[in-house]
């Protein structure tokens, strides 16, 4: 069964600690001389520890450090891209700010032109409406005048007939009426004869 690299690192660490403990508490005698045997064992244990660590933990550590290196590299590249974008946007904003007065002037001119054309359009529409109202008013006045004149003529004719009728009834006697009827009948018969001929 293959152990993970962390298990091997833990095992090597325990072994190194055991060797260090054993060398430090060897025989109970204090000695100022170097014990080459124990020192060699400790060095050997350390190299074994490094070998185990490199053998089983090396690929994982290499993989970890490569992944970390790639993450840092990507982060640096993203930061550089963000910086370049920010610089480009700042330059664009600076250009726009420098040109803002020109843009405002263009907008003012555009609005003034639109307002002027709208004013002309409204004035033309108002003038056309006023002419149409004036024409309709003249036509209405003429129509009402003609109606009033016709009514006055009708009223005057009725009044004239009424006055004539009253005048005739007061002034004409029975003999005059007979004579007028006789003259009227003769005129009718004369008129009928002329039409027949």
How do you describe this structure in short?
With 197 residues, the protein is an all-alpha fold. Helices cover 90% and strands 0% of the residues.
* SSE topology string: HHHH
Shape: rod-shaped
Number of strands: 0
- Beta percentage is under 5%
Number of structural units classed as domains: 2
For the largest beta-sheet, the strand count, sense and barrel status come to: none
How many helices? The count is: 4
Gyration radius, in Å: 66 Å
- Taking pLDDT < 50 over at least 5 consecutive residues as the criterion, the unreliable ranges are none
* Span between termini: 155 Å
Compute the average pLDDT. Answer: 78
Structural class: mainly alpha
Overall helicity? over 70%
State the main characteristics:
rod-shaped, 0% strand, 2 domains, 197 residues, single chain, mainly alpha, 90% helix
Describe, in plain words, how this protein is organized in 3D:
With 197 residues, the protein is mainly alpha-helical. The protein folds into two domains: 5-25 and 34-78; 103-196. 90% of the residues lie in helices and 0% in strands. The chain has helices spanning 5-24, 36-98, 100-171, 174-196. Helix 1 (5-24) packs across helix 2 (36-98). It is rod-shaped. It starts with a helix and ends with a helix.
